[in-house]
Amino acid sequence: MPPIRLLSPAVVNRIAAGEVVERPSAALKELLENALDAGATDIRVALENGGKSLLVVEDNGHGIAADELPLAVERHATSKLTDDQLVDIRSFGFRGEALPAIGAVSRLTLTSRNSAITVSGGIVEPVRPAPPHSGTRVEVRDLFYATPARLKFLKSDASELSACVAVFEKQALAQPQVRFTLTHHGRSLRTLPSAATFQERATTLLGADFVAASKEINAVRGDLKLRGLVASPTFNKANSTSQYVYACGRPVNDRVLFSAIRAGYADVLSHGRYAAVLLFLDVPPEQVDVNVHPAKIEVRFSDAAAVKSLVIGAIREAVTATAGAFAHALPLRPASYAPATTSAAPQRAM
Length: 350
Prior knowledge:
The protein has about 350 residues and is an alpha+beta fold. About 30% of the residues lie in helices and about 25% in strands. The protein has helices spanning about 10-20, 25-35, 70, 100-105, 150, 155-175, 200-205, 210, 255-265, 305-320, and strands at about 40-50, 55-60, 105-120, 125, 130-140, 180-185, 185-190, 215-220, 225-230, 235, 245, 250, 275, 275-280, 290, 300. The protein has a seven-stranded mixed sheet, with helices on one face. The chain has a five-stranded mixed sheet with strand order 8-9-14-11-12, sandwiched between helices. It has a two-stranded antiparallel sheet with strand order 10-13. Strand 11 (about 245) and strand 12 (about 250) form a beta hairpin. The chain is globular and about 60 Å long. The N and C termini lie far apart (about 45 Å). About 40% of the residues are buried. Mean pLDDT is about 85; it is low at about 325-350.
């Protein structure tokens, strides 16, 4: 057996990239979170070939100083932790892995203020002057060119685009105060002006029918707070793609929360049917662990029973209030954009 040796930094970064950036939509999620953490109020996304050949996220946030650009593309370097504790996470991205992971498998150019840095296949170039730029622009070209084995497993442009649109919309739903725009090959797909309330953003993205068929909820139990929209049982589908769930502002795929939704509708929905919901759960940072999944799509609650009880009770109360108010099932929003020549399946919302 060969002797034990340390892997090279380039190989380590590419392995990490496989955990954090499995497809263009995963890279987009990380970059959107960085923009939001930077205080952006205007985020512009541009894609080509479903994000495979080009993915650009541009924001008007506070930006990165020139002398910090090399650190920004190093693993485990972050400005989002004030100490070495992981029990008080108040930002979306905090591991310091996204930019170096993306740079390890693509041609990444990070431009902020009046400087830029490029990383190609993990090779970091010197910082160079750039035209003044308000905020930060991240350009990702040729995703996975440095790891051809992963590149061949990407789906069609239409499928990857559909996944990117789903990620884009999920982030936009939780941040109505932020203006979002999305283009693909220069064609505008989504233009979302800033909104005063999450209901306005939900009307734009999920449809006026959903909002009209829903009961607004605001429930509190101790330090737990739950708000959102709970649709009438008649507003249902055969899958859960219209169940949007957020914990501490981040979209999550959490078994506790989805189980609570099923339990809340158990008495009024037949098996295999899923009502539409838009739920925002706020939990004190010390009561939730957001560090249990590389892509941060799973969370762990210190008191899962209390969370589940809150969600079930709020949904049952809302369902009781809307029972009988709607006598017909309404169609939900169409699938995310795909070119007319394709029939890409809609992506799971959570």
